[in-house]
Amino acid sequence: MHRYRSHTCGALSTAQVGEIVRLSGWCHRIRDHGGVLFIDLRDHYGLTQVVVDPDSAAFKDAEKVRAEWVIRIDGKVRLRPEGTENPDLATGAVEVYATELEVLGPSAELPLPVFGDVEYPEETRLRYRFLDLRREKLHRNIMTRGAIIDAMRARMKGQGFFEFQTPILTASSPEGARDFLVPSRLHPGKFYALPQAPQQYKQLIMMSGFDRYFQIAPCFRDEDPRADRLPGEFYQLDLEMSFVEQEDIFAAVEPVITGVFEQFAEGKPVTQKWPRIPYAESLRKYGTDKPDLRNPLVMQNVSDHFRGSGFKVFARMLEVEKNQVWAIPAPGGGSRAFCDRMNSWAQGEGQPGLGYIMWREGGEGAGPLANNIGPERTEAIRAQLGLKAGDAAFFVAGDPDKFVKFAGLARTRVGEELNLVDKDRFELAWIVDFPFYEYSEEEKKIDFSHNPFSMPQGGLDALNTQDPLAIKAFQYDIACNGYEIASGGIRNHRPEAMVKAFEIAGYDAQTVEERFGGMYRAFQYGAPPHGGMAAGVDRIVMLLCGVTNLREISLFPMNQQAIDLLMGAPAEAAPKQLRELHIRPAPQAK
């Protein structure tokens, strides 16, 4: 018999009744029933109930074991007594009567329980992540993650893509976040950068004559963390294709993502025909470029009903051409208590409040706004929004560029508070026609809004003749349930167009050649039209596992301060290491 096991803890069934078996694993739970010990023995594959009574030679050793001790047991498989079977367990029809027990690895007192799903502070969970990962739900999530990545690979290969690996040590690139820099020992004063994405390399793969590339790519960005973005690193399903237009990318990617979601959705509906929503329309209807389409609420422009009205606050705002009034419908929200609650929430978000109208039986409008604009305008608003008695609407006003984010939050809040969001489905959509440039208030200049390597709609002619802020790009995102899960574009493969695009953003031709020399040179020697995208593996797994924090689907994440509590990173470097790298730390300001 094998030194440690003849079977795993998830393998035994009635077929093994009467056999002598050997199992090894962790003591998941120990119960003493009148002198008879029951040990739930757990390994990666499952759990088996082990019984040890005073007549067993293993009893003396079994009395010593505690939770999470690693043991080996030999014993005989038998049916559980009638009425004690566990149908929720793969091994629930049998148990093992132990005749021998060996302690392989005793455990100190646990800093957090492994049995059950008790909430524990993040610091404890991450410092003892190896214990946290033993917990059933987290262990299952990590295994699901691996299965999802396998499914992505299989579906990509089924679409004719070939997997490549691009370098990790590379040059800095303007991907919209800070780089992690790696000092060079051989070249004093110079630095590599960890890739924010394999963007330039995957385009160079197309320049090299390969046709369909993908990889599960590690990416590194020195960004502030949040629940849906881990600090430091993340993984993406990265892909690129030659001789394609935007529709070709959609046709290749949509079945891959839909198929993966369907495979792991556990029966929840998944969008079959993805809508195409222009960026500007998404902002106007949903207040975000990553809308949660499970929320049925659609915001509308109701400025005409307030222009010249008795509600002077809005009427005066509308005297400025750019300003608008948007309405957020609230079906079933026509109670004073709910409207007051929304108003208080808005004030908590730093707003002066949230105007509203409620509609009573008979269609009569109520509330301060209704009283000020009169019944005719109130009725016109109700009709435009398709509301009825018992419903309400909330209003935001001013410059849409400034209030759009708050309006989107208010739409989300109304939908959740009124239980209008169907949580048991996955709604996918393409967001298209992103602006190519945006104005950076911080730097007081025009900058790229999305990906600097994308093709502007209209090509070089648009760059030469149009207002830069009016140019749209062949850029697109995939949104799912309120998250951006993928982003991509058709690439700007003409060197003169690339130089012009960067020139508008403040980079001269010399800078472009210096910073993107490899790609710029490649474009001189026959560049095929190409495009691609990258899907966030972590966010897709998070959605499919039904969690809201990426920590729940990642093996060894950092904490919210970008510290690896388990391994103690970042840490000070030894003086010898610093000398080899020609680095002297600057004294920190006190």
Q: Overview of this structure, please?
A:
It is a single chain. With 590 residues, the protein is an alpha+beta fold. Helix content is 30%, strand content 24%. The strands form 5 sheets. The protein has an 8-stranded mixed sheet with strand order 6-9-10-22-21-20-17-11, sandwiched between helices. It is globular. The mean pLDDT is 94.
Per DSSP, the total helix count is: 18
Strand neighbour order, sheet with most strands: 6-9-10-22-21-20-17-11
In the predicted model, the low-confidence regions spanning at least 5 consecutive residues are none
Please write the CATH class name of the largest domain.
Alpha Beta
CATH architecture of the largest domain: 2-Layer Sandwich
Average pLDDT, rounded to a whole number, is 94
- What is the alpha-carbon Rg in Å? 30 Å
Helix content: 25-40%
Q: How many β strands by DSSP?
A: 22
Catalytic activity: tRNA(Asx) + L-aspartate + ATP = L-aspartyl-tRNA(Asx) + AMP + diphosphate
Protein name: Aspartate--tRNA(Asp/Asn) ligase
Family: Belongs to the class-II aminoacyl-tRNA synthetase family. Type 1 subfamily.
Enzyme class: ligase
